[in-house]
Design goal:
Blueprint: E1 2-6, H1 12-22, H2 33-41, E2 45-51, E3 54-63, E4 68-76, H3 85-96, E5 101-103, H4 113-116
Bound molecules: coenzyme A.
Amino acid sequence: MITYRIGNALDLDAVIELYHASTLGERRPVDDRERMRLMLANANLVVTAWDGELLVGIARSVSDFSYATYLSDLAVRLSHQKQGIGRELIRRTQELGGQATVILLSAPKAVDYYPRIGMKSHPSAWMLAAAERLH
Ligand SMILES: CC(C)(COP(=O)(O)OP(=O)(O)OC[C@H]1O[C@@H](n2cnc3c(N)ncnc32)[C@H](O)[C@@H]1OP(=O)(O)O)[C@@H](O)C(=O)NCCC(=O)NCCS
């Protein structure tokens, strides 16, 4: 049975291990422990999935709990994928955000996932990376 918890008071090593075990670690700074620590510490809406005491899924977001929830990382352990855990993590994230819209950028591997579970793509999303400068 999978149980769900709310909050970012998590063991950082267990979280980093989950990023590896889900493959999301290929696209996140898992080797920069301090950056990962800040990502977890400053996220204000974190939902996790557990198989007993094993961390098997995470939805890590920043939310104002009113207008927008940015879902930065969604990861489910490979051994536990395709059991509805990812969908449930997003459902709970949406619910906890009140009126906020859930917004995210898909990893290449997940581009077919989000429409499948009912999310809509937005044709005018814009980004400015930390190393980029405005004109
Ligand atoms: C993407 C991810 C979070 C999905 O989690 P999950 O728990 O396996 O997904 P769910 O069980 O909720 O899947 C719901 C449905 O989507 C389907 N699905 C799952 N992964 C899919 C994918 N990558 N592409 C298309 N469909 C997918 C499932 O088969 C299921 O379909 P069904 O309802 O017809 O049975 C998980 O595969 C993962 O961690 N991937 C690696 C990391 C990653 O890419 N994260 C996204 C970052 S933006």
